[in-house]
Amino acid sequence: MYNRSMPIYRIDHSMSWRVIFLSLAVGTLTAGSISATPPAAQVFMDSGSPYYVPAAVTVTAGAAIRWDNPTPTHHTVTHDKCFDGTGRCVFDSNAVEPGGTYTIPSLPPGRYPYQCRIHPIMRGTIIVTDSPILSTQT
Question: Which CATH code of 2.60.40.420, 2.30.40.10, 3.20.20.70, 3.40.50.80 fits the domain covering 41-137?
Answer without folding.
Answer: 2.60.40.420
